[in-house]
Amino acid sequence: MRWKLPAQSAGGGPAADRTSAPTASVSHVFQTPGIYAVDVRVRETAGLAASAHATVDVRLDPPPGNVGVSINNGNYATNNPRVQVDLIWPQFATQALVSNDGGFGAAGGTCVHG
Questions:
Q1: Coil, helix or strand for 34?
Q2: Whole-angstrom distance, CA of residue 98 vs CA of residue 114
Q3: Domain tally for the chain?
Q4: How far apart are CA 39 and CA 44, in angstroms?
Q5: Is residue 31 part of a domain?
Q6: Is the pTM of this model over 0.85?
Q7: What count of Cα atoms within 13 Å lies in the side-chain half-sphere of residue 45?
Q8: Who contacts 10 (Cβ-Cβ below 8 Å, separation ≥6)?
Q9: Is residue 49 assigned to a domain?
Q10: Is 80 in the same domain as 53?
Q11: Does residue 16 contact residue 4 with C-beta atoms inside 8 Å?
């Protein structure tokens, strides 16, 4: 089995192009979020071959807890315009929208990935 991974997932060097032992499975863990192209090519002892290509979208896991937003560690209210916002997003989310005007008037999105 031969498999190829993009440079970013191979520690920043050239793309990983590896040949594994003759086993039925190979695994890889991507260290940083991103979109990666993955190619695999297999050949069996009789010479039959197959190949496949896939794009993998790697995202951060959400922090533990219920989905939601906490402001200033759950304080009931504040008069200070500087607040700490902690976000727990749903799995596979790519952005979140937070607003302080109650109606998301001129709100802007923020990415939930590194």
A1: strand
A2: 18
A3: 2
A4: 17
A5: yes
A6: no
A7: 4
A8: 16
A9: yes
A10: no
A11: yes
